[in-house]
Amino acid sequence: MMQTRLLRLGAALAACVPVAAWAQSADPHRWQLNMGKGVTPMAHNAYNTHMWGLWMCVVIGVIVFGAMFYALFAFRKSKGAVAAKFSHNTRAEIIWTVIPIIILVVLTIPTIRNLIYVYDTSKADMTVRVTGYQWMWKYDYLGENVDITSRLSKQSNDIRQSGKDARSFNDPTYLLDVDHMLVLPVNTKIRLVVTADDVIHSWWVPAFGLKQDAIPGIVNEAWVNIEQPGIYRGQCAELCGKDHGFMPIVVKAVPMEEYKAWITEQKAAKQTADAEPATDGKAATTPAATPAAAG
Taking the domain 126-289, which CATH number applies? Predict the structure, then answer.
């Protein structure tokens, strides 16, 4: 009898333990429990709001399940407890209605503040236009006359086309690397205007706390301010066709001086390419003819 009760208690406790949710960090091979903190103010706000709501749920859970288990043990039938018979308690109904309303209002305040903050693209230091194609991304640095096209890296593409088990190649960035990275400066407010040329795509970089839909005929706005240099990876987050899983995003965040040097290099490469006559007598206009990005 005692063993049966212990088994029931264990099952009840197991039901109260939430299933662990795993979130992938900026490093594709390092997994962590809970939501990532990210490297932008937007990501930090999302993380803080999430943690506030999580701890509030923990407090509520402790109170509710604490009261429930106390009642189960203190007023169990074996101790002679007799259930009270009543059908209505106005005070109790008011309490369990008013308290959740207060909690929801308290949670709404930071949520609305963060939503306003997310869409405030004013006072940006630079603008990059992001255009989704099947199956690549084009980045235009507005005002700089520099653009790059970013596709799945040749190494990843060769592996996926080989017909062999991709794990046998031991490539740590398989399907997560590109031929040309998007290069951005750190500690700079960067406005992103996001659209698409063919079907709906979605530009998503988890470390930035940003996912913006790219829709043909519509220009959506977003912004980032990257706090730490590094390489940050993302992917198209909208099913956009048969090769949807093969259009990753790679952002290289560098100090401002390094970014300016890279922009100067790209401008020089573009001028050289424009000055050279095309072999067929026509200027190259395809995205593949754009200058290569660093990295």
Answer: 2.60.40.420
